[in-house]
Amino acid sequence: MQFLRESFIVFRRQLRMNLRNPAWVIIGMLQPVMYLFLFGPLLKPLIGQLGVENEYTFFVPGMLVQLGIFGAFFAGFSLIGEWREGVIEAERVTPASRTALLVGRLVRDLLQLLVQAGILVGLGYLLGMTGSARGIVFGVLLTLLVGGACAAASNALALTTKSEDVMAPVINMVMMPVLLLSGILLPMTLGPQWLQSVSDWMPFKWVTDGVRTSFSGDFARDPMLYGTAWAAVLFVLSLWWGTATFRRENA
Amino acid sequence: MIQARGLVQTFRSREGRKKTEVRAVDGVDLDVAEGEVVGFLGPNGAGKTTTLRMLTTLLRPTEGTATVAGFDVVTQSEQVRRSIGYVSQTGGAFSSARAGDEVVDHGMLYGMRGADATRRGKELFEQLDLDGLWTRMPKNMSGGQRRRLDIAMGLIHDPTLVFLDEPTTGLDPQARANLWEHIADLRRRRGATVFLTTHYLDEADHLSDRIVIIDHGRIVASDSAENLKANISGDLVDLELASAGDVTSAARRLGSMAEPGRGGAEAVEVDGFHVRARVAQAGRAVPGLLADLSRADITLESIEVHRPTLDDVFLTLTGRSLRDAQETTTDGAGPGEPAPPATPALVRQEQ
Ligand SMILES: Nc1ncnc2c1ncn2[C@@H]1O[C@H](COP(=O)(O)OP(=O)(O)O)[C@@H](O)[C@H]1O
Ligand SMILES: [Mg+2]
User: Where is the ABC transporter domain (chain B) (predicted)?
Assistant: First the structure.
């Protein structure tokens, strides 16, 4: 109860600061729209190979995961600014739970993701995407789970490096293989066997597959299980890591 | 209120391949009584902030124990946090958030109800001359206003023990004088125990009942400013001669009444036309010196007598002046620490 209250105070403070920054709101809204309108049409000629009737049926789930992962990776940058101004130290000197200090910030990131997911799915429908309602809800939840994992990891990285200059290259280095090996933009099945084998080692590929499968409403297939399991594992690990950095005395 | 025994903090840092271990705090014992205002004085990098972070539960001591407000900082950290207010060197309000919101949220993290935190916050704004700044962002405030806002945040839950880390660093002299008033008020109005760090001698002198001097992570003295100065032997006598030819002769005469030099230094210091030495009870000795010099036909341009300052105390205790210590450890500045102001730091105080 007290934990929820403390998380809420931190969340409300973050949201208040973000909403006061119109650039944050507008860019957040425009991201999914631009992806849909500027990248979606490129997939149209590939419809046959994708095994779907409408390119957005393939594309929207992938975009969702992309937003979840990449938007969240950048969540930590604002934390460095706060740390530099002594905000984190001031929060840590209160009796509030250290996990709440992290979770409040994660909830802000997840809310942003949820709004973006709403825009994405809504526009996708208008553009002819098909899918099961139940599956879409579950797919969005899965995305929130993996987004939360990435946001927690990003916050942990921010408090560990305490420097945008150190953090940016690390994020870039992580993002490249994730983007290329997850089948977010194009299905890995288009590639040669060796590339598919490599991508089997990429947890985010399973999550992407899981979300895509979920959208189709086919809960019984393997990717659902693997995707959900990976998302849960990543979430637990990142939350643990994030809390540890907030707890660590030297943060 | 504070009792620390053998506090040690070591930091491992890496420069390239070389790993070094810094003993930032090296066996600190501290006792602070209820209602006391204690100034923790030392040059940059002496270990003041690190000591404070251990006492405020932000940093776990590598060795040693401390109880603060009756609770152990390691095993009862939550109770310690409830009892203390901490104003860090960097402050704690985000520059682009509204001042009032930051203060209220901070209070709510202490478990206060929103309405209570708001009422209390507005009261503090009034007391700290921040009227009308409730919705202002800290980035649009003056340095002094920002610092007072930091203090308001630290006081929101009405702590009886307040830690202030370099409360006036980077402020102009007027803002400092104003902030001193508010810090003095902490005890006058609220009966709070105050533990403040500073590298300004005049600040420690002006605000504290007792001064604890730290250098290289060790406490080198702890007493009232009066007693610290009284323990320094002798006043500084500074003769300025009219002609260079008289310097040696004047130095010999002054030397005959001077105290021995400190830390291996000569008793008499010669610097161009100036001849300086420490003389016990200079007020009584100087008339005789003047007569002696005039008998020898030595003409003086000027003579000055300085009572001991805290800088002299520091020099006696460590063999360096606080000013020099400052220059050799400028890298000790914390993250985002504002550059020290050019003038008011370490001004020598004549009394
Ligand atoms: N987090 C840290 N990691 C490594 N070294 C540190 C850290 N914090 C402080 N130090 C070092 O410890 C010493 C004491 O620092 P500090 O307590 O900030 O001094 P002060 O507050 O008296 O200026 C300095 O040499 C500083 O460089
Ligand atoms: Mg300091």
Answer: 2-241
